Amino acid sequence: MDVSLSQSIVSTATALAGRQTADAVNVAVLKKALDIQAAGAATLLQSVAPAPQPALATSGPLGTQINTFA
Question: pTM surpassing 0.90?
Fold first, then answer.
């Protein structure tokens, strides 16, 4: 076996191991950022008051059977 081939294999394996570590760190940072963004969005949605629902008409020929609005 050639020594330069062995060194090439070792350097490639070392580079791949370092790349896997970097990828794992990047994924962890991305997950943390998404969690923070989700928490902010949930807080924002909770601060918005729900829209009031229009009431059905109680008398007359219109609006007493189906409640439709745009």
Answer: no
